[in-house]
Amino acid sequence: MRTHFCGPLVPLMSGAMRPSLSAKVAPISSGSDLAMMASKLEPLYSSVLCRTTTRFAENHSATAALKPSESVTMVIGSTTSTFRMSSSIGTPLGRSFETQLPSEESLLTAEIGLKCLRLSVLHSPWFSNFPRTMSDCLLPSKALQGNELREVQTVPCEINGFNLRFDRALTVFQHELTIYGLFMRQGEAKEVDLLRAAKYDAQRQERRTMIWDIFKNLLATHAEVFGGKERRAEYIYDCGFLLYSLKHLAESEAKELFLETKILNAKSQAVLGRNCERIKAKITYTTSFICSANQLYPSGAGDAGSEQRCRALQQFCDILTSQKVNQREDQLVYKNKRYDADSRNDIAANMAKVIKDGSEKITTIIGNTAQEQGAILLIEPKTSPFFKPGPLKEFFREVFYEVKARTTDDRRFRNELKKLLQGLTVKTTHLAKQATFQIKSLTEQTAGQTAFMKEDKTEITVAQHFNEKYRIAVDEHYPCIIVERMFKGEKERNFYPCEVLEVPPGQRVQTQEQTPKLVEQLIEKARKLPSDVKEVVRRELNKFELGDRNEYLNAFGIRIERSLCSATGKLLPPPDIKYKTNRESAVDHAGRRQWKVGNNGFVRPAKAPSRWVVCVFANAIGCDSARAFVKAFVGTAKMHGLVMNEPFYDRLQDLSADNIQTRAAYYRSNGVKFVLFLHGGEKRSIERDLMKETETRYKFVTQMVHTKTVLKALSQRGSQMVLDNIIMKSNLKLGGVNHELVSSRHHPVNFVEYTLFPAGRMFIGLDMQSPGSPLMGGVNEFCSDPTVIGMCYTVGTSPADMRGGYWYQEAKEKRMTELKGAICRALDHYRQKSAADPRRQRSPREIVIFRAGVSEGEVNKIVNEEIPEILDAFKEMPREGGRPYSPRLTVILAQKQCGIRLMPANTRRGKAIEENVQPGTCVTSKIVNPHWTEFILVAQQALQGTAKPTRYVVLHDDERNRFTVEQLENMTHALCYLHGIVALPVSRPAPLYAATELVKRGRANWKSREHRKNHGDDRSISSDASDSKEIPPGYFAPINETRLFNLATDIDARYWA
């Protein structure tokens, strides 16, 4: 548990838990006095102190403030600490501090001015008020803009959003609505909560339409509560627990309403069943707020009340703008997302799936300052895969034919089918009362082989049973569905053939169920140019029925402008690219952000491996073509300074998991350090991933080159650029540095070298990816995959020199575990690279961390748990200059899924490069948060579709020496030019981009391990290996064989590149 304290606050416990005080204190009953105190502090700390002190003073009466010059002695148990207040209240007393309470007793340290107060506090309900969203967290206030760059081009932009106008500042009353079904079971009435979270997509759609039917009838039958038909638009409902109204519905106590089930429509009655006789609704008042963006920050400060009003307004507007689609059966609704249920516009996709177009909307509070805030409704086009609805047998057939096109292995078909079906919701078609359930697994045997015991103790197969009892012909060659359920306190398993089941519509495909081919189809379908995005966004506004005739908007005095929201961006200048002897401009003659490597030498060519192998997978390419490619590869490498000797050649015909591992062990036993393998199958195939996984087991570096890339490298057109890209990747993988960054003519002198990347500044990228989870949150019971965390960091003196790794944690963990140890290892690595002489090694003076892989609702875990853990890691490092190690720390949240699209205001139809905003377009005003330091950046060159910007929010900064917004945005932008594999900027800072790649590598390696386990090969690298005299026949001459043995070497390079 963690909480915040600021300034001269001392918590006082009650009863036996109260610490003894030797000084007089002035009790405070509300937050007004503390807010007044905060106004006297430095502006940098004022808003933070005001927010925190008001929150705690209003919620805890046992709060006291100390007077200047008074001393306090805190005595709890054997701990005694004395503190004297600073004599001047004008000093920065508002600096916040935190405490972590992992057990009943914990030590609290608070820095106030130049003094330090140490006290011991007991675990108490006093600490129950914790931040829960980004708004609740104590983020640094807006930084100064800065003006070091004198000439910056402005760019008029539009975004995929519409301004909300609040014509009337109406008071909105929020209520909690609970709905129960009264069921008669065995002569007794039992209440069942009808709002319980639906577990499955299909169930959620069915539940939503039923709940709306109940709500509609409640309004109609209880006019004494809700008023007549003309007032029904004054009630906003989320089909869950939240009910908003312009009228106070339960002023004194909760109100109960009843409804007869028989007045509901037939579909709702069928869902409820025959035993549900009545519906009970309970309305409880919770809070109220003013429906106006102008009322969010009345005092100009982001205090706790302001942030609560902000969140309340956002939530209300999200639900208000969903009222029309929530009540429609022809819509598939998932919180703020909607898709058409109609399948006529669906696109057929890989493995019995379809692709639907839809959108997601969200309300965002924006503004330059707290006094200029407003609200916009963002609408982002969405493309999502769904399972194809219909008979399950058709599903089986489609998967069967697709798998059989690749292999004749029946086991492969069953494994593919099992992976697809696990967790899918199906519905029976042969029963009097149809049942809906999730698929647990598949039988190992077919329907003609799977048997069970009948009540008369005779054995019968599933196919025979359904033929005899239901007169249904069952295909005996397909496996059966396994369903588990509790019956009379015991778990029983039932078998169903595919002929008696169907797939209900509206079931989205989870991430772990998406095949590489499906991902390609999704990407292709989702590509829309800016001109098309603008049209789709306007069309989606109409799909949500958010025009002038929307009675709900009119009732609450809200208008949505029909024109897209505008913003003014600025074009950040790119750095120049420095090679060994020359420098290149990052802007070509056509004005595009790209450059040519040419014959430039790498800044630091890697040390060539003493022994390396070119391995051809199966018949990916012929011998002559392979040798010609290697010749061109070696020649290009030499031109850039990477001198490679002649490789050994090998051909791997058997691509089974066991044979790939055997061959990898064989390579290692012969001292191989680098394997370049040529592959002709799918780029994300399991064979490719198995070969990549050998890096972790056998400690050599691998690089895949696809057959198509090999042929491009041997062609007459564009071959040099292809070879350059391959060699750039090879040099990074082997430990080299391709290029560095220097100031261009558009920068102040040495701006990049000394302001953005001074000596002693370290950059860290952190990303995490959880396995596909169920749509209502939580951990998928059918998925045992872990969460993967990737970490990349710079070492030595150059931000282009990076190292990294990944680790796993349980999927249920929403924060990064083992972070302290990872930071310590990264700092140790930095020290080792800082100087060859251990006596001259230094840790970084400044650390900038880019954190991704987190939603806004989980930001508090970063602020309250991860950042303190990082600060704790600093305490483990060696002292420098006789002082504890305490570097300047800045943490920036990078949100790629921010929902915003930046597009030129005047879009002309053309190619993607012509329609999109230019790389380096950055927005820091109008459409950003009015209180936090935030900027939106498009760093990449959009080659297809519409560029997706990244939203950056500063979560932590050193208040003594803060970065300006200009420095942060230019530093972030420049780092996008250090990816090193292509001569283009990437979408996010290179350390963060690499961290994401490490997450992908970790996920692929986990899948490879699971594949080996399922196919009988789960040997560890420490397993014993014996001599083998038989060498599998290969197209090329084999390497000289020696005994296989374990060689535990660390890969000190960007092996994941």
From TrEMBL:
Q: Which GO terms describe its molecular function?
A: RNA binding
Biased composition range(s): Basic residues: 1005-1014
Q: Which SMART domains does the protein's record reference?
A: PAZ, Piwi
InterPro entries reported in the protein's UniProt record = PAZ_dom, PAZ_dom_sf, Piwi, RNaseH-like_sf, RNaseH_sf
Residues in domain Piwi? 674-1007
Coiled coil: which residue ranges?
none
Q: Where is this region: Disordered?
A: 1005-1034
- Pfam families per record: PAZ, Piwi
Start-end of Basic and acidic residues biased regions:
1015-1030
PROSITE patterns on file: PAZ (PS50821), PIWI (PS50822)
- Ranges for the PAZ domain? 399-505
Question: Which family would the database say this protein is a member of?
Answer: Belongs to the argonaute family.
The name this protein carries in UniProt is Piwi domain-containing protein
Q: What organism does the record attribute this protein to?
A: Steinernema hermaphroditum
